[in-house]
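This section describes the prediction task in plain terms. A model, or a person checking by hand, is given the sequence of a single protein chain and must write out its three-dimensional structure as a string of C-alpha cells. No templates, partner chains or ligands are provided. The sample shown here is typical of the held-out split.
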Amino acid sequence: MLQDRSITRANLKTPKAAAIAGILFSLLLIAVFWLLRVSVPADPQEPGSWLRANSNVVALALNLVPFAGIAFLWFIGVLRDRLGQREDRFFATVFFGSGLLFLGTLFIAAALVGGILIAFAAQPEELINSAAFHIARATAYNLMNIYMVKMAGVFMITTSTLAIYTGFAPFG
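The expected answer:
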C-alpha cells in the first residue's frame, strides 16, 4: 500500500502535470475569449442586439469557464508543489493571490454575463431597456478588460520571477 502511494505521488509531481494543466487552461481560455469576442461587441454601450443573435455561443463560452478554472487551479497547485522548499514567501504569496484574483474576476464576470442571458431569456424587451442590463454589462466589461487583465499580468510576472530565481522550471 505504501509503495502504491509513493508511485502515485511521484507521478503527480512530474512537470508534465503542470504542462498539461497549463496547456488545457490556455486552450479553454482561448476558446472562451474567442467565442466571446466573436459574439459580444467590444463596446459596453451597445444596446444588446448580440443577445438575440449570439446568446447560444455566449452560453457555450460560459459553460467552458469552470473547466478552464479547474485547469488553472491544477496548474497553480502543481507549480506550488514544484517550488517546494525553495519558495520565496513574498513572491509565492503574490503568485497565489494574483492567480486566485484572476480566477475570481473571471468567474464573477462570467456569472454577470450568465445572469444577463437568463434575464434576457425571461423578458427580452424589458431587460434591454433596463438600467440593470447596462450596469451588469458595464461591470462585466470592466472586470474582464481592466481587473482580470491586470491580475493576469501580475500572475505572469511573479510566475516568471519565481521560475528564474528558484530554477524550478528548466530553461533553454
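For orientation: The radius of gyration is 19 Å.
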